[in-house]
Design goal:
By secondary structure, the protein is mainly α. It is built from eleven helices and five strands, in the order αβββαββααααααααα. Belongs to the class-I aminoacyl-tRNA synthetase family.
Length: 265
C-alpha cells in the first residue's frame, strides 16, 4: 500500500523504517512460562486411539493443534480438520502471551467486529473515512470547533484525560530524532512548523522543552531570588544582568550605563 501510494506516511523519512520491518519479518516466540497473562489461544487436539507426543518432546510434527477464539470454536475447527471423533478432547496451551503481544490485543478486542457494515464507518460529521484527502488524515480536520468540544466535554476536559496520552504518543514518535529548541520564539516557530508539515512530535517536543528547560528551569528559578528577597544588591544584580550587553563592542557604552544605574539605585 505504501509503495503504491495508497497509504501515505508523513513524514516520508519513515518509509525506510516501515519497509525495514515489513521486508524482514521473522518468527517471534510469543510464549512465556508465567502465572499471569493472556493464555495462548492454541488447543492441542487429542484423538482416541492416537498416542500424543510427550510435553518435553521437541518434535511437534505428530501433534495436532488448532487456534481459535475460544474452546467452542476450537472444537468446531478440530472436527472440520481431523474428523468427528467420539472421544476428541482439547487441551489449551498453558503458556501465556508475551507482554508486548498482550498489549497489542487491546485495539483488536475493542475495535474488531465493532463495525460490521460500511455505513457504520461513517463518522458523525457525515463524511466517509475513504473520502479523506489523498488517503491522509489531516490533523486540522480532527480539530473540532468550540461548540463541539462543549458538546463532547460538557464538564471540561479531565486534567489526566486522553490529551495527556495523545501528547505522550506524539513525543514518542520521534524518540530517535534530535531536536533543538531555545527560547520562546524558537519554540513557537518549531511548533508551527511541525503542525504545518504533519510532524506532531516536533510540535509536542518543542512545547515540552520550552516549558521544562526554559520556563521552569530558567525563567521561574531566576525570578525566585528577586521575588522572595528585598535586598538592594539583588535588585542591582537583576538590573545589571538585564542591561549588560554580551557583545564586546558595547563595553564602553556599558561602563557609562553602569555608573548611571549605580547612582540611581
Amino acid at each position: 500500500a505504501v509503495r503504491s501510494n495508497a497509504l501515505a506516511l508523513e513524514p516520508a523519512t519513515h518509509h525506510h523504517t516501515w519497509f525495514h520491518y515489513l521486508d524482514n519479518i521473522q518468527d517471534w516466540c510469543v510464549s512465556r512460562q508465567l502465572w499471569w497473562g493472556h493464555r495462548i489461544p492454541a488447543y492441542r487436539v487429542h484423538l482416541a486411539g492416537h498416542q500424543a507426543s510427550d510435553d518435553n518432546d521437541d518434535n511437534l510434527e505428530n501433534e495436532r493443534w488448532v487456534v481459535a477464539r475460544n474452546e467452542v470454536e476450537a472444537r468446531q475447527l478440530a472436527v472440520e480438520t481431523y474428523g468427528d471423533h467420539p472421544l476428541l478432547t482439547l487441551e489449551q496451551d498453558q503458556d501465556v502471551l508475551d507482554t508486548w503481544f498482550s498489549s497489542a490485543l487491546l485495539p483488536l478486542s475493542a475495535l474488531v467486529g465493532a463495525h460490521s457494515s460500511s455505513e457504520s464507518m461513517k463518522d458523525h460529521w457525515a463524511k466517509d473515512v475513504e473520502e479523506s484527502r489523498q488517503c491522509n488524515l489531516d490533523p486540522k480536520e480532527l480539530v473540532r470547533a468550540e461548540k463541539d468540544l462543549k458538546r463532547e466535554f460538557p464538564s471540561g476536559i479531565p486534567s489526566c484525560g486522553t490529551d495527556a496520552l495523545r501528547l505522550t504518543l506524539s513525543t514518542y514518535l520521534a524518540q530517535a530524532l534530535d531536536s533543538q529548541s531555545h527560547g520562546t520564539a524558537d519554540a513557537v516557530s518549531k511548533s508551527h512548523e511541525g503542525f504545518e508539515s504533519f510532524r506532531l512530535a516536533q510540535s509536542a517536543g518543542a512545547a515540552q522543552r520550552f516549558f521544562l528547560q526554559d520556563l521552569c528551569d530558567v525563567y521561574i528559578e531566576f525570578s525566585k531570588p528577586v521575588l522572595y528577597s528585598a535586598k538592594n544588591n539583588v535588585r542591582k544584580t537583576q538590573i545589571a544582568t538585564k542591561m549588560r550587553p554580551k557583545h564586546f563592542k558595547f563595553d564602553a557604552i556599558f561602563m557609562q550605563i553602569e555608573l548611571i544605574v549605580v547612582e540611581v539605585v
